[in-house]
Amino acid sequence: MTGSLAEAQDVLAARGVELDTKTVRLIAYRYAARARLAQQVEHTVFEETVAGRRVVISSDGGRLRLREPKRGPQTKKGRRRYTGAWREPKGLIVYVVDAEGKQESCFAPFIDATLKGPDAVFVLLRLYLQRLEITRADHVLFIADGAPWIWKRVPLLVQALGLAADQVHELLDFYHAVYHLGQVATLRKDWSAKARTRWHTHQRRLLMRGEVAQVITAVRDLCRGRNSKAIRKHREYFIKNQHRMAYAQLMALKLPIGSGAIESAVRRVVNLRLKGPSLFWCRANAEAILLLRSYYKAGRWNMLKRMATSHLALLAA
User: Fold this and answer.
1) pLDDT tens per residue across span 227-269
2) How far is CA 228 from CA 64, 146, 159, 242, in A?
3) Which of 37, 71, 117, 188 lies in the 20 to 30 Å Cα band around 301?
4) End-to-end Cα separation, the chain, in angstroms
5) CA 96 to each of CA 69, 105, 164, 180, 293: distance values in angstroms, whole numbers, following the listed order
6) Apex CA 261: angle with CA 61 and CA 55, to 5°?
7) Mind listing the pLDDT tens digit for each residue in 125-155?
8) Are 291 and 37 in contact (CB under 8 A)?
């Protein structure tokens, strides 16, 4: 809930619970470890159902710094040296939208994140979707940016879950695609600002209408001159994701065309707590906070509490 252990200590003190920061830290990390363990060994389906509903699934990565041991002698004060390399925690979100494409307030989203890599986050995603009995959903939309680590795993996940082809939609985030159009226009140094805006606006409209082939042709026509190599990279982006740009079709179905939900989740879970000046995390501690923050920000703290205090977690602990 709070931005630091010191803030948590102050909140607890205001409620009449006097604990030092080390004790708060120890409780939090052990609580998270028990909850994650129960999550992995529990196999029952969730009480909530997505039968006949429209489910949106997304994944993305954030950034934080890990405190990793560094080879070499200790410092003059006898401390071990460490590196503070940036690492990418990968997160997921599963939520339900109504007939108008708005997120249903009566269905709290599922949010989770891990530092263990793309395979691990897709294992988590499969776990959540199986327990939600995703095969009973009406529509299942996978939406994300153009990261290859996401899209090469989506078909495998769909197959493993047993989803029908007419249930599933894959969509590239519209606003990421528009960003690439803006980059193409910027690379045309011989254009005026007005010409860039005119071209960008026209291509954006074509993209919205689902006329991706025309957009690719327009970008291909610009692949000449000094910046042709850079423009060609953007062209390949559109060619590679062409089948994930059915924006007109998805808008007609009143489904989202943007991945703002996962970007907001990454900001609230990762950026506002684990990313910042002079913040360096041990991997296990970062994993614990990622889990706790994910469930708290998703409005599912009571579910986490049940997992952490379940007999399975207590026996394993």
Assistant:
1) 889 999 999 999 999 999 999 999 999 999 999 999 999 999 9
2) 35, 21, 39, 21
3) 117
4) 25
5) 42, 9, 18, 28, 20
6) 110
7) 999 999 999 999 999 999 999 999 999 999 9
8) no
